[in-house]
Amino acid sequence: MNTPDGPAAANTPKPALPHPLPGAIGLSHLSAYDWEAADGVCGGSPHLHLVCTEAYVVTGGRGAVQTLSPDGYRDIPLEPGSVAWFTPGTVHRMVQGGDLRITVLMQNSGLPEAGDAVFTFPPEVLAVPEWYASLATLPPGTGAEVEEAARRRRDLAVEGYLGLREALVAGDDGPYAEFQRAAARLVRGKVPRWRELWRAGALATAERTGAQLDALQAGEPAYLGEATAHETAPTRLGGFGMCGRRDEYNLPGTTLPYGGE
Fold first, then answer.
1. Is there a contact between 254 and 113 (Cβ–Cβ < 8 Å)?
2. What's the pLDDT score for residue 245?
3. Residue-wise pLDDT tens digits, 46-70
4. CB 104 within 8 A of CB 27
5. Neighbours of 40 (CB within 10 A)
6. How far apart are CA 76 and CA 220, in angstroms?
7. Domains along the sequence of the chain with CATH
8. Confidence class of residue 141 from pLDDT cuts 50, 70 and 90?
9. For position 5, what pLDDT does the model report?
10. SS3 136
11. Are 31 and 244 in contact (CB under 8 A)?
12. Residues 53 and 47: beta-carbon distance below 8 Å
């Protein structure tokens, strides 16, 4: 979650997302980590999102995504062509089964970049925002130092996750519910910024469709004169994300570096 949530972020200009992808989604490509965790499973850092639904479109290899939610623990197989998605509040952990490669689609482009994710660190870490931030944030770059920090972060998230999963499987949803509450407390101060991004991105996109429907109904489709095409390419290859090595895109209108999966 290497996002600029400190003083620099407070001075970020108000967002303008004039040409978002369809539905104002975020996009990245991901190769799942093959690092073995304490439970013998290779994969990424378990976490949840507070307001964004996320989808995995599998393009290669095999693996799984483990989820924790009010309906219990699930282990969803991933193989080429399969799609899995999870709503806000669902803890998810990507598991590597062999060359797993996915395309990640994130709701509300701009919000994940602004920190809409909380790792399943142990409760004592979640209770101290400064401690949490120091362990959740990676140094810049893609070298060995960053990889080591990403592995430490993953291992700490797995430590907390295994406790949540054990309790949930045993029928005790108390620790899981408390984790959700702790996550909400951690991000509360970011909500005004998220609201700005939502208004400029997802909400503006939906409202634009409404205006277009009004124009069509009135027989005055002047907006079609603004038709155009856009293109982009990865701006960083192999960055360290939450679940794996990420190819990141600087999509039109996105003002913050991506810090999601």
1. yes
2. 87
3. 999 999 999 999 999 999 999 999 9
4. yes
5. 6
6. 48
7. 20-206+232-249 (2.60.120.10)
8. confident
9. 39
10. helix
11. yes
12. no
d(CA 195, CA 51): 11
3-state secondary structure of 48: strand
Closest of 106, 103, 82, 117 to residue 22, by C-alpha? 106
Cα–chain-centroid distance for residue 112?
A: 5
The residue behind tokens 């600087």 is: 250
Q: What residue type is assigned to position 79 of the chain?
A: E
Distances (CA, A) of 224 to 149, 167, 195: 49, 55, 29
**H runs (alpha helix) in 61-187:** 123-126, 129-136, 144-169, 174-187
**pLDDT tens readout for residues 68-103:** 999 999 999 999 999 999 999 999 999 999 999 999
**Distance separating alpha carbons of residues 216 and 203, to the nearest angstrom:** 20
CA–CA distance, 236 with 239 (Å, rounded to integer): 7
> Could you give the 3-state DSSP secondary structure of residue 84?
strand
